[in-house]
Amino acid sequence: MSVQEVLPLGGVATGQSGDFRADHRLVAEMVKPGSKVLDVGCGEGDLLQLLETRGIDGRGIELSREGVNRCVAKGLAVVQGDADTDLVNYPDDAFDYVILSQTLQATRQPRVVLENLLRIGRRAIVSFPNFGFWKMRLQLLIGGHMPRTENLPATWYDTANIHFCTIKDFVELCDEINVKMERAIALDLYGRPIPLNLPWWVWNMFGEQGVFLLSRGGGK
Fold first, then answer.
1. What tens digit of pLDDT does each residue of 135-160 get?
2. What is the C-alpha to C-alpha distance for residues 18 and 145, in angstroms, rounded to an integer?
3. 181-202 tens-digit pLDDT
């Protein structure tokens, strides 16, 4: 699939969303106001709070009890759960969108999780750190050690991330399981979108993270 086949992302919302992470603002821009959303691996609820400012009905599932407690303290509808084991309990088409933000690489079965996202939701939004980013490659090539960046600060022996992937890997997985990419964007080191008309290898080299809006392909 070429990058020209993916629809461009619209303008990023401003105002109340100005204090939120760049990838969270992009995700929120992809969700239509009034939608029902499940945020899988919602952390402390920052994205859910942003979605609320846009009139979106957000629910969350979070693995850590500490994260759940902080979400509940903010008045957010969040339950404790594991993306690898608990998504199977949700019925088909229960949500308009299911979001997996910076969590894909921490799941034990990324393919199964992705398939569940698109079973539970009519659309899925997935963002993840790109292990093909040039800083990652340089640390492996020159330093000879597992890379660490601002987005991935943990050491190899103390990280929850077990399935790193590149933007290219993710695109190939989407093709393999017949997932349609409605929108896609790569963010550079400074959180700026990489121009859409550049080839995938540029995204794979210079994109620090990817954000994808997905839907079921034909026959699914």
1. 888 887 888 877 777 777 777 677 67
2. 36
3. 999 999 988 888 888 777 778 8
Question: On the CB side of 67, how many CA atoms lie within 13 Å of its CA?
Answer: 20
Contact between 66 and 43 under an 8 Å Cβ cutoff? The reply is: no
Sequential DSSP letters for 23-69: HHHHHHHHSPTT-EEEEET-TTSHHHHHHHHTT-EEEEEES-HHHHH
Centre a 10 Å sphere on the Cβ of residue 92 and count the other Cβ atoms it contains. 9
Q: pTM of the entire structure?
A: 0.85
Whether residue 36 contacts residue 57, with contact meaning beta carbons closer than 8 Å, is answered with yes
DSSP one-letter code for 110: H
Angle among Cα 135, 154, 112 to the nearest 5 degrees reads: 90
Nearest CA to 84 out of 113, 114, 116, 41 is that of: 113
Distance (Å, rounded) from C-alpha 209 to C-alpha 132? 9
Q: Do 8 and 183 touch, CB atoms closer than 8 A? A: yes
Which pair of structure tokens corresponds to residue 17?
């969303």
Strands (DSSP E) found in the chain:
36-40, 57-62, 77-80, 95-101, 121-129, 179-187, 209-216
Cβ atoms of 183 and 204 closer than 8 Å: no
Q: Which amino acid is at 201?
A: W
Three-state secondary-structure class, residue 19:
helix
Helix (H) or strand (E) holding 167: helix 167-176
**What's the DSSP call for residue 95?**
E
